[in-house]
Amino acid sequence: MGQRTSSLASKVSKSVSSLFTGAVDDSETCQNRLAVTPFVFKRSGSMYFDEDDDLAHEFYVEIIEGRHHYMKKQYCNLRPQGEVDLPHPRLNVDFPIVICEAPR
Questions:
Q1: Residue ranges per structural domain of the chain
Q2: This model's pTM is above 0.85
Q3: 83 has which bridge partners?
């Protein structure tokens, strides 16, 4: 198990370093050069923009009916935030590698 993990880790580190340096061995094919990195640098945003370009998780509109005031959640005229850069790279949850082995 340890040898397989080490060989997989060396392949991952080689593909990650080739992504940042651009250097690739001649034996590697073009398809291997475009290997998937184990890191995630962006995520989809969970907030929305309204028509005034204010950013929030949810928006409410004040409704006044006679002497009664209440807040109603706004659903229309909202745009999703889109992709957001992460402050630090995270590990991809779908990347098949053993980070540590549990003791028996």
A1: 45-103
A2: no
A3: 44
